[in-house]
Structures are given as structure tokens and as C-alpha cells.
Amino acid sequence: MAIVKRCGWCGNDPLYMEYHDKEWGKTVTDDKILFEFLVLEAAQAGLSWITILRKREGYRRNFANFNVEKVASFTETDIERILKDPGIIRNRNKVKTTVTNAQIFITIQQEFGSFYQYLYAFMPNGKPIQHIVKDYKHVITTSPESDAIAKDLKKRGVKFFGSTICYAYMQAVGMVNDHEYDCTFR
Fold first, then answer.
1. What is the pLDDT at residue 22?
2. Full-model pTM
3. To 5 degrees, how large is the angle CA 172–CA 42–CA 47?
4. What angle do CA 45, 49, 51 make, to 5 degrees?
């Protein structure tokens, strides 16, 4: 039986291990999933990722299963309803920003054909970056690409998505592969 080796950051929390093994660093081309991670990563600003993973179902329930068109049309009444649910981070600015970010996401889709195409316009040769990571403790937290994407999104009005959050997003959706070199899931 082969020994499974994981990146050191996920430790032995079952939720983290499942996320690491099945999602983290896998290239995502589906705009629905790209929107889901935009919502989750923006919610994470100032918090730990495990906190967001534990509330993921609450986000799914409150944000129309991450249907960007539905979220973009949310009203103040929807925002008030969402803020009552302890299944999410009940930060008014983050909830309101999710609606605004959804509207901007749709505008980007219309301009570029898809959010995926928008993102990969910033990537060298339009492809994911493969890093050689010996120890997760030495992984960078921003890059020229995350700087550029975050700057452009900010100019478009996206909030809670600076370069560090953007880089975490890029890791999550496989735009960069920062799995440790000996990780089974690299």
C-alpha cells in the first residue's frame, strides 16, 4: 500500500485533508466554481481558510448555490436575511460586497467571454504556473500575476480581494501549483 504524502499546511484536520486532496491546486475552468471561490476567498479576508471551509455550506445555502446571476440580483432584504444566518461570516460589508462582486463578475464574463478567460489573460502563456515547493512554509503569498489581477479587479470595483487573497485564490483554483514537490496530489 502506497503512503499518502500531503502538503504540510493541511495537517490532519479531515476537512482540510479532503479539500487538499480533492480541490486545492486543481485547475478550474468552470465559471460557477471560479465565482464560488471568489466569494469564499473574499469572505476569508482577515480570517483563516479553515473557518471559511467550515462555513462553506452556509455560503452555498445563502448565496443561491453560487449562482452568480441570482446573487447579482440580491436586494437589501436578501442581505438582511443572510446576515441573520450564523452559517456564514456575518460581516455586512462582506455580504454586500458579494452582491457587488457578482455584478462585476458578470460584466467581466460579458467582456471576456468567461471569467476563466479573463483570469488567464494575466497568466504567462495563458497557462497555470508550476512551482517547485520543498516546504509550504516558504511559499510566496503574492506574485506579479496576483498583483496585476488584484489591481485590475480593484479598478473594476471588486472589494476584499487584494494581492494576498488573490494569490490564495490562484492556488485554490489551480492557476498556480504550490503543492510540495513530494505531495501525492501534486
1. 96
2. 0.95
3. 90
4. 95
Which residues, at least 6 apart from 75, have a Cβ–Cβ distance to it below 8 Å? none
Q: Are 61 and 39 in contact (CB under 8 A)?
A: no
CB under 8 A, 24+ apart: contacts of 48-54: 49/168, 50/13, 50/15, 50/16, 51/89, 52/89, 53/15, 53/16, 53/19, 54/15
**DSSP labels, 51-114:** HHHHTHHHHHHHTGGG-HHHHHT--HHHHHHHHT-TTS---HHHHHHHHHHHHHHHHHHHHHSS
Distances (CA, A) of 71 to 8, 67, 98, 106, 136: 35, 6, 8, 10, 35
Gap between the Cα atoms of 39 and 33, Å rounded: 10
Give the angle 145-42-184 at the CA atoms, nearest 5°: 65
Q: In which band, very low, low, confident or very high, does the pLDDT at 5 lie, cut at 50, 70 and 90?
A: very high
Q: How far apart are CA 62 and CA 78, in angstroms?
A: 9
On whether the CB atoms of residues 39 and 63 are closer than 8 A, the answer is: yes
Quick one: 14 exposed, middle or buried, by C-beta within 10 A (0-12, 13-18, 19+)?
A: exposed
- pLDDT at residue 31, as a whole number: 98
Could you list the active site residues? 19, 41, 49
In degrees and rounded to multiples of 5, residue 180 shows phi and psi of -60, 145
CA distance 186 to 176: 11
